[in-house]
Amino acid sequence: MAKNVVPDGLPVLARGKHRTPRSGACFMEMASVLAGEKWSDQPQCTHPLLAGLARLVNDSTSDHGRRGLVEHIPSVVGVQGDGLGWEVSLVAAVAVEAILDVPEERQRALASGLIRCEELAVELGPDQVHGVDAMRQALADVPMAVAWSRTFLTPGPITSAQFRRNTAPTMIRCSVLGIATGASADPDARLRDLLVTGIETATRRTPEVELSYSRSSSASSTRP
């Protein structure tokens, strides 16, 4: 994957949304600059699920720890996704990374989400979802959360619309906020690991034609 270089002179990463670079920048606002887009924390260059993960990690990381996120900004530019199997793979990988380190309530939510991811993986068929074995191992590692989840889940797989509207964003949110509020000795490092897991999973499944976005747009990039 061709990566842009983070240019000198950009603002230091900070929490939240910013009107202009003079007032600061979050992870995805910097990505919008690299992509040559209008200044935004929701640029078109990155799939909304991966962008949502990056924003949550940015906002949940300490000011000191956020410096370690900058090097990963170019990696999200041009990552647009490859259908439902791609989305299931992404959120499942993030949940698997987080599930053992989050509080009980969020662990139950992640277990419920992973059950749905496994069901969708079976429905989509072989090779459509990456990391199915890791999902199943993660569920085996939290039997009480799984038992609780199966008590309340409606039988049968959910629709793609339900997954995209509710399950996927909830899993991303519970993973990040669970790590941020859990008992990890180094939450900044764990949040960075979560983001890297998401990026690596997303780029593994992203077609080369999508990645050409970063190469073509960077040539005409203008700063806001």
What does this structure look like?
The protein is mainly α. It has two domains: 21-80 and 207-219, no CATH class; 84-204, no CATH class. Helix content is 58%, strand content 0%. It has nine helices and no strands. It has helices at 27-34, 48-60, 84-98, 104-124, 132-141, 143-152, 160-181, 187-204, 208-219. The relative contact order is 0.19. Mean pLDDT is 86; it is low at 208-224.
Q: What key attributes describe this structure?
A:
globular, 224 residues, mainly alpha
* Largest sheet report: none
Number of helices: 9
Overall pLDDT level: 86
Assembly form of the protein: single chain
As a percent range, the share of strand residues is under 5%
Structural class: mainly alpha
Order of helices and strands: HHHHHHHHH
Poorly predicted sequence stretches spanning 5 or more consecutive residues = 208-224
**First and last CA, distance:** 26 Å
What's the shape?
globular
Supply the number of structural domains. Answer: 2
Percent of residues in helical segments? 55-70%
Computed CA radius of gyration, to the nearest angstrom: 17 Å
Number of strands: 0
